[in-house]
Amino acid sequence: MEKETLGLLRSIDYPADLRRLTVDDLPKVCDELRQDIVRELSVNPGHLASSLGVTELTVALHYVYDTPNDRIVWDVGHQAYGHKILTGRRDLFATNRKLGGLRPFPSPEESEYDTFACGHASNSISAALGMAVAAKLSQQDRKVVAVIGDGAMSGGLAFEGLNNVSSSPNDLLIILNDNNMSIDRSVGGMKQYLLGLNTNKTYNTLRFKAGQWLHGRGMMNDDRRKGLIRLSNAIKSALSQQQNIFEGMNIRYFGPTDGHDVRELVRVLREIKDMKGPKLLHIHTQKGHGYPPAEKDVTTWHAPGRFNPDTGERLVDNDPDKPQKYQDVFGHTLLELARQNPKIVGVTPAMPSGCSMNIMMREMPERTFDVGIAEGHAVTFSGGMAKDGLIPFCNIYSAFAQRAYDNIIHDVALLGLHVVFCFDRAGLVGEDGSTHHGAFDLAALRPVPNLTIASPMDEHELRRLMFTAQLDGMGPFVIRYPRGGGVLHDWRCPLQAVEVGTGRRLHDGDGTAVLSIGPIGNEALKAARETGAAMYDMRFLKPLDEAILHEVGRRFSRVVTVENGVRDGGLGSAVAEWLSDHGYPARVVRLGLPTDRFVEHGSVAELHHLCHLDAEGIKAGIESP
Q: Which helix (H) or strand (E) covers residue 422, if one does?
């Protein structure tokens, strides 16, 4: 359906327009909104299945609540495309994720309807609780709703928030969007619990009416309310012969209910909207709902790329000569190593297909572990296995590994445990933007004792580093590599060890020495050849190759460092510090991601150009006075 035929949707510029419609109009709005998302994403790729799954919920929330005065806090922002379209950005949605266009995830800097940053999972309850407490303390007439789902309840921060919700005076509503999914299918005990959770409908109706009766007689102040909730929870547990984790925390529980019945959602939201105290509404949804191809294969259609919206045919580049993605080289190499070394196990926080650990998972399910959206746990779990003799390959997206920083230091590095951290999506990742760029890992981890930190320039180097990392006698070993395709058409090579702390000179030259780390070195090599500079692939950030640094210090008065990470604290800082400490007077020019500024979204090539990390920008850095 073309936009011009989307009659009701074209009349909605803001939620106030939506609220002028009748409840019976809402199913048509949902259909049109879903079709608009499908049409737009077929030509401008993004996160499809998640937003389709919450279409009815999105419409119901903006219909019942007085947004933007009332706060809706989205968890995992790839659910929020429908929210963007309904909140003044319908005609701009074609620019979503493009350089200079709409941001990939909700951001308060873009719209007053976007209440909080939500590029990473599990923060909605904590943030929304803060807003609910602020509203209560400042005596503002404001409702606050946290929408959590897509597996985010497996994150530890969600439980920390729940614990605080139960003890702080607030009127927060938590909506648990239970679709049995994150990106791959959800795992763990919480997923099993939610699948089986139910309440007696008659009981819930009676309790609601009793609550209204007591409230009307002034018997629902905080102390009495908590006592009545505890009593009613005990009665319900006895009647239903089950315990409810949420009501056990004094959070009123409603549901589960059909998350694709927009009329019913409106009715339920209206009934519980003005209730005092914390509440949780449990809804069942289907990721990809309303678009059959996405319903059948939700993992693929989480972010399917371009596709034909009428047939569902994905427009995939099947060029056999195109280099493999780094993640696939990792996946195949991990399986190869695991076949040789029975100590190797694989750990991923909810990204088996994204990081290609599913390759090993299919053959060795007993030796691969998807721990859900729980990066800190993934690290400490890996540390526990390493303590007793296994060699975990713990694969985490670089930006998500930020949430496991303490675990890396306290639970692995401090003990010198043999865990191999593979940080996928390191450096600039493109259209997912500032919340997903792997910008900080080199600078954050360089000061940590006991860590070996390396980054391969190409796929052969990745395989060699992975082989090296699993050898006996190694300690914590970090390997970082970028999103997307590599540079070699034949990525297979013999598995050989690399001497830890050694780099290599790839091009000799005069005047200036270029030192790089990781795949960005391919751009640096082009620039060095064009300018006649010498070029070294350092390969290791920690330990540094001191032989190379002595050579560079003796031969060159000017050094240019290149890294796909923040300019301060990474390779450039390490080289400048070392040369200074050893009395070499070389001037160091550091090229990397900008200092004190987040890089926004756009294609990787566009962002590399803006950050002067393509061959052209590096050449300019070499030739600058």
A: strand 420-424
Quote the CA–CA distance of 6 and 211 in Å, as a whole number: 42
DSSP state of 491: -
In whole angstroms, what is the distance from residue 445 CA to residue 286 CA? 39
Which ranges of the chain have pLDDT less than 50? 1-4, 182-183, 191, 194-196, 198-200, 238-241
- For CA atoms 4, 432, 563, 497, the dihedral sign is negative
- According to the model, what pLDDT value does residue 6 have? 72
Number of helices followed by number of strands (H, E) in the chain: 25, 17
Task: Write down how long the chain is.
Answer: 625
Residue 210 has a pLDDT of 62
Each residue's pLDDT tens digit, 448-459: 999 999 999 999
Distances (CA, A) of 111 to 54, 83, 102, 176, 622: 20, 11, 10, 24, 41
Q: How far is CA 424 from CA 87, 331, 410, in A?
A: 34, 11, 22
Which residues are 307's β-sheet partners? 314
Angstrom distance (rounded) from CA 614 to CA 520: 8
Q: Which of 554, 562, 511, 558 is nearest to 536 (CA)?
A: 562
For 143-180, letters b (16+ CB in 10 Å) and e give bbbbbbbbbbbbbebbbebbebbbeeebbbbbbbbbbb
| Cβ-based neighbours of 281, under 8 Å, separated by 6 or more | 173, 174, 175, 176, 254, 255, 257, 268, 269, 272
Find out whether 539 and 497 touch, Cβ atoms under 8 Å. no
Whole-angstrom Cα distance, residue 265 to residue 281? 10
pLDDT tens, 371-403? Answer: 999 999 999 999 999 999 999 999 999 999 999
- Say if CB 150 and CB 76 are below 8 A apart: yes
Q: Angle, to 10 degrees, between the axis of helix 521-531 and the axis of helix 615-623?
A: 50
Distances (CA, A) of 233 to 93, 218, 240: 45, 21, 10
**Peptide bond between residue 68 and the one before it cis (omega within 30 degrees of 0):** yes
Catalytic residues: 287, 375, 403
Structure confidence by residue, pLDDT tens digits, 51-82: 999 999 999 999 999 999 999 999 988 899 99
Q: Which residue has the tokens 């427009």?
A: 315
Interatomic CA distance for residues 84 and 102, integer angstroms: 9
Beta carbons of 370 and 348 less than 8 angstroms apart: yes
Helix, strand or coil for residue 559? strand
pLDDT at 189: 53
